[in-house]
What we know:
Elements: H1 15-20, H2 22-30, E1 35-39, E2 43-47, H3 50-57, E3 63-64, H4 88-99, H5 101-104, H6 108-117, E4 122-125, H7 126-143, H8 149-156, H9 171-187, H10 193-197, H11 203-229, H12 238-251, E5 258-262, E6 266-268, E7 271-273, E8 278-281, H13 283-286, H14 326-339, E9 344-349, E10 354-356, E11 360-362, E12 367-371
Parallel strand pairs: 2-8
Antiparallel strand pairs: 1-2, 3-5, 4-12, 5-8, 6-7, 9-12, 10-11
Helix pairs in contact: 6-7, 6-14, 7-11, 8-9, 9-11, 11-12, 11-14, 12-14
Amino acid sequence: MNFPAPKTQPGVGHLGRWGRAPLPLLEEGAALGPVFRLQLWRPTVVGYSPDWNRFVLGDVLTFRSKGSMSGLSPYLGAGVVRTDEPDHRPRRRELNPHFTHRSVQDLRPCIADIAVRRLPLGPFDAVAWAAATVREILAATFFGGLFPPRLLAQFLRPLDRALPAPLLRRPWLFHRMNRALAHALAIAPSGTLGAALRELPGGLEEARVALSAGYDTTAHTLAWLLFHAAGHPWWCEPDMREAVIDEVLRLYPAGWLGSRRCAEDTEFAGVTIARGTLVLYSPYLTHRDPTLWKEPLSFHPGRFADPLPPWGYIPFAAGERTCLGRPLARLILDSVLSAFAGSQLDHVQGDPRPRAAITLAPAEPLLLRRKV
């Protein structure tokens, strides 16, 4: 007995389709069942049911980060993202206090000031505007704005591009970034995230990975958030913002795919998963599963008035390895959406369909117009 698999291409299995268009490949696999096989560079199993999510995300000893897809990108190949047990839990205990919901609330005035100052007037591309705004917010919240903006943009730019750009090694750029980070951490004002990280061993690597992991995920989500808020001014009001953000994170989870390496033989649904197998979970598939969500392809924030399906809503993963930056990302999204309250935001042009690279991103510019 084995899990089903989509059709393969001779000699390359699923690698060719994975490189060109991974989302249709995942959707084809999902039509075969809640768990399916892929033939990539190593044997791969993908699942998206709540039981699968609990199985993978609830067992940090069997399913490890080392050897997973995160190691393919130099942007994510260090820090707590790449740490496994027994080192992961104590490292999270060191980092968690600085990224809790309560801790990051002190950064709200700074974020709100940037959002208001950067409010566009007239036509603008939400994708480009969100990217520039999030870069400025990250520089301010980590370093009090004391970081070279051109270098930060140059360092993060590959994350906005299609594969293989985010996977390419750029040793000279990383050297320049590390040198600038060392200086910025040393002078980061009290109360910033940089000031907290500089006191930790390996704080420079954690800062570099946090900037990388927090940039495109938040910027792309923000672009979709503004696109869907256009024409619905009441969605910028305090009593609606949380549900609207939740719905954007459901329909367009930036972390569309998570990966682990199976460290020992295990079994799911009566099928053996061999040691060394690449094990994937997909928030993209989970969040679009019609058995969990009514009309899953429709944008409907009101659905969050009902209880969430356990292990069926995982935009920031779940379990012990829940995304450390979740409170900061949600704070940025809420603060920026709040800044648009009282404005008239309209669609000009653009299709919100996603494309998949390291993160989920809008496939094209999303042109909006803001009036006051």
